[in-house]
């Protein structure tokens, strides 16, 4: 069988275990695909080589006669997104009617005579196929019931759980008593991608049927498409979170602060304090003025005064308490004479004493 190199044809579900493939890596633990299981030899065409794919011409002819047929008028979508017919989306064709239309056009396409292919020689495709089937050298193989049951099933290699041998797949659990002998081993399951809650077929790595495992817990996805979309959404979410973390790591703290508070509302300015035109003084007298601090003296001055004061105390004298910020008497180190209650003193210049005046 000749196949194109598209991902659908070269997928492991179809051609797994094939030796010559242009897509994906070939691994020993990969399950065998449908064609490999049915012992169908596959040949992949060369990439970007239209001459090695004669079916391409058939697809072009079928696209012309099926989609542009008057029966599909109003339902044809055009060959490009920007090339829509004038009556686009004016009619919808029922699915069963469309299937009959496609079958009739394919039959007419195969019955057309005058084909110039090397094996046709002017005959139609139908006549050429009938001649090849009636040839004595043609051996027709008929698939068995077991092989026919694999036609619409996908495959995947899974390791069973230890102990019970359960199979966990897409959130569902499958089990059969025969799986107890294969607990903890790797098996191949074949399942319907559109009905994951149905039983699955379990094979060993040599493609021998083990059992049909029943779905004992259908809490997971019902089809592969939903599971794939969920996995893609989780992957995109993890990628977005990682991108945010990378962006935070490359930005400074100041830039992050500006971004965090950029959307906040602007606070209104605080009102200015209104001062009265007339200032009133406090008259209750409860506020006492703090005394002025004493004048600072040097350390040498302090030691001199302190030693002098100790000498006076040892001699039995009395030290006058300083009045105000300026020390007086002995505490200040200046001996001041006592002042009389009258104006002036009782002495004259020159050392003579003036007698007191009579009253």
TrEMBL record:
Stored Pfam families: DDE_2, Mu-transpos_C
InterPro entries per the UniProt record, alphabetical: Phage_Mu_transposase, RNaseH-like_sf, RNaseH_sf, Transposase-like_Mu_C, Transposase_Mu_C
UniProt organism field: Rhizobium azibense
The Transposase-like Mu C-terminal domain, residue ranges: 150-211
Protein name: Mu transposase-like protein
Molecular functions (GO terms): DNA binding; transposase activity
Region (Disordered), start-end ranges: 325-359
Domain Bacteriophage Mu transposase, chain residue ranges per copy: 3-131
Highest taxon of source: Bacteria
A biological process term (GO) from this entry: DNA transposition
């Amino acid at each position: 069988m000749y196949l194109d190199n598209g991902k659908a044809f070269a997928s492991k579900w179809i051609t797994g275990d094939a030796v010559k493939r242009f897509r994906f890596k070939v691994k020993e633990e990969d399950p065998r695909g449908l064609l490999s299981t049915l012992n169908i030899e596959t040949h992949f065409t060369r990439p970007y080589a239209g001459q090695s794919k004669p079916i391409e011409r058939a697809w072009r002819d079928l696209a012309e006669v099926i989609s542009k047929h008057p029966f599909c008028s109003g339902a044809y979508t055009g060959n490009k997104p920007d090339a829509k017919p004038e009556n686009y989306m004016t009619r919808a064709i029922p699915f069963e009617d469309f299937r009959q239309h496609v079958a009739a056009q394919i039959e007419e396409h195969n019955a057309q005579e005058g084909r110039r292919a090397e094996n046709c020689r002017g005959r139609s495709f139908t006549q050429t196929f009938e001649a090849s089937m009636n040839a004595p050298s043609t051996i027709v193989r008929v698939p068995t019931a077991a092989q026919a049951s694999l036609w619409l099933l996908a495959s995947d290699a899974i390791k069973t759980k230890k102990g019970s041998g359960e199979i966990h797949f897409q959130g569902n659990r499958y089990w059969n008593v025969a799986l107890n002998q294969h607990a903890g081993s790797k098996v191949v399951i074949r399942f319907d991608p559109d009905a994951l809650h149905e039983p699955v077929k379990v094979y060993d790595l040599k493609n021998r049927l083990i059992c049909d495992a029943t779905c004992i817990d259908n809490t997971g996805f019902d089809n592969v498409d939903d599971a794939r979309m969920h996995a893609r959404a989780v992957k995109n979410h993890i990628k977005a979170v990682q991108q945010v973390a990378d962006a935070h790591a490359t930005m400074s703290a100041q830039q992050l602060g500006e971004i965090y508070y950029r959307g906040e509302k602007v606070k209104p300015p605080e009102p200015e304090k209104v001062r009265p035109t007339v200032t009133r003084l406090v008259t209750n007298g409860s506020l006492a003025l703090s005394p002025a601090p004493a004048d600072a003296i040097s350390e040498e001055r302090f030691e001199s005064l302190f030693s002098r004061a100790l000498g006076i105390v040892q001699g039995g004298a009395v030290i006058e308490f300083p009045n105000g910020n300026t020390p007086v008497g002995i505490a200040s180190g200046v001996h001041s004479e006592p002042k009389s209650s009258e104006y002036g003193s009782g002495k004259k210049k020159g050392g003579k004493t003036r007698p007191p005046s009579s009253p």
